[in-house]
Design a protein that fits this description.
Length: about 500
């Protein structure tokens, strides 16, 4: 199997790759695409400048506006008449001459320096070679405004025919960015090398910083798998890893409880299986060696063997049923059943036992109470509650069963009059094999009755519990169905 890279190595590789991609994009933008970006932005700026100049073409301060825009946008501007005579010119250096006829060194000033426009040599700049091309394009276009890049791609030229026959020509060099690109390349080389080295080191530090808590959590998980359910879990690095540590800790705690419960379950099952098996074996040997010839003694011993076999069968069946219920964690939707009828049926099952052993079941069951439930499973809960009461009631052998309607629910309750359950025992009475009170009856029981009832009631999303003040009452409540306002019926089973 191919060995996978560690978390730290993968994090370092991805971070380093991210840095490399960032610098590749930066190189492309600052070198390869810089000229095209510059040209697009420059052309848009020139067009905006021309629109602004055109808007002031009829103003008395038209040339002052040209000067301002030409200087601020590094433009070369000419205003000519229809015959190509230069009426005015301006560029980004015009203000340096201050309008003087001669420059400081005595040479002719190439800019007009007076109020009167004329063709005096040296007072105006010569038209660029692209001027005639501009005029031709204006004539061909017929729109009064054109813009184009020169054939050698060194400048962008745009022109407008003003309303009085004048022509406004504006141009901007496009090749000047090449020098900037050369400077940027040198800078980018140094910046890229230094940044990649820094990114390499930073990625290594970050990967190690992230790898440490993950490695510690992995080690703790291995400890849990090895049986140490209370490992030291790292916390404090980030919220997500803290949450992972908390989840792992909670999982370890549940595994520990499950393992302890499993050991307890096996110990209790072993004990409960050992007792009937020992008695069956012992009485079978007694029948074989001692009471085989004594019919009365033999029948008594065989009766004990049969009783213990029944007890063993009941125990095994309930263990299997309990395991199946625990494995089925699905949430179900139940149909409405006649809970009143179900309670009376279960009470009827105890009639022979009560008659034989002198028990009395006082039943107060309202008629026609409906509830959403699985009828077979709820009958099992009712049976287990009554059976538990039979095993723990006092010498009066009296048990009270009630089914009443409450706001939005139906409440079933079974009361025995035996020993109270201590407050510290109540949270555990639903656990497997937990015994909080001594049994008064020696009937065949497995010790799983309340645990099975808990699983069923939890699946039904029912409320349930026990009240152990004066008398001990086990109860549960199910959502009420229709027809719950029927008459109340009271009966006693003896």
């Amino acid at each position: 199997m191919k060995k996978r890279k560690s978390f730290g190595v993968k994090l370092w590789l991805w971070f380093f790759l991210f840095s490399a991609v960032i610098f590749l994009v930066l190189w492309l933008l600052q070198t390869v695409f810089l000229q095209s970006f510059y040209n697009d932005m420059a052309i848009r700026n020139v067009e905006k400048a021309v629109s602004k100049m055109t808007a002031h073409a009829s103003d008395s301060g038209f040339y002052e506006v040209i000067d301002e825009i030409a200087v601020s946008n590094s433009l070369l501007v000419f205003v000519t008449d229809a015959d190509g005579n230069v009426l005015y010119s301006a560029d980004e250096y015009r203000r340096l001459y201050g309008g003087a006829k001669q420059a400081d060194d005595g040479t002719d000033n190439p800019y007009h320096a007076g109020d009167v426009m004329n063709w005096e040599k040296g007072t105006l700049r010569n038209l660029p070679y692209s001027y005639q091309t501009l005029v031709n394009k204006l004539d061909d276009a017929g729109t009064g405004r054109v813009g184009f890049v020169t054939e050698d791609e060194t400048a962008y030229v745009t022109g407008v025919r003003l309303g009085d026959g004048r022509i406004l020509s504006v141009s901007l060099p496009l090749g000047t960015v090449d020098r900037t690109v050369g400077i940027l390349r040198v800078q980018l080389v140094w910046v890229s090398v230094l940044s990649l080295i820094l990114g390499f080191v930073l990625a290594w530090i970050i990967s190690k910083r992230f790898e440490k808590p993950v490695t510690q959590i992995a080690a703790s998980a291995r400890e849990i798998a090895g049986g140490n359910f209370r490992p030291e879990l790292p916390k404090g690095f980030c919220a997500e890893l803290d949450e992972l540590s908390d989840t792992l800790g909670e999982t370890a705690s549940r595994l520990e409880k499950a393992q302890n419960a499993q050991r307890e379950f096996l110990a209790n099952v072993s004990h409960d299986l050992r007792t009937p098996l020992t008695m069956i074996k012992g009485y079978a040997e007694m029948v074989k060696e001692i009471s085989w010839s004594d019919e009365e003694k033999r029948e008594k011993d065989l009766g004990i063997i049969t009783r213990e076999a029944d007890r063993l069968t009941a125990l095994v069946n309930e263990i299997l049923e309990f395991s199946a219920m625990q494995a089925d964690g699905s949430v179900k939707e139940y149909e409405k059943i006649d809970l009143s009828h179900a309670v009376r049926e279960v009470i009827g099952q105890f009639a022979p036992f009560c008659e034989q052993n002198g028990f009395v079941i006082e039943a107060e069951v309202a008629d026609g109470l409906m509830a959403a439930a699985d009828e077979i499973q709820i009958k099992r809960v009712i049976y287990n509650f009554i059976d538990n009461a039979v095993n723990h009631t006092d010498e009066s052998k009296r048990i009270k069963v009630s089914l009443t309607a409450r706001d939005g629910s139906v409440r079933f309750a079974v009361t025995d009059y035996g020993k109270e359950i201590a407050d510290e025992d109540i949270p555990y009475i639903w656990d497997r094999y937990y015994t909080a009170r001594n049994r008064k009856n020696k009937a065949v029981v497995s010790g799983l009755g309340l645990s099975i009832a808990k699983v069923i009631l939890t699946a039904h999303r029912a409320k349930f519990g026990v009240d152990s003040k004066n008398n001990c009452t086990f109860w549960f409540e199910l959502q009420v169905g229709p027809n719950t306002s029927a008459a109340f019926n009271s009966s006693i089973v003896e």
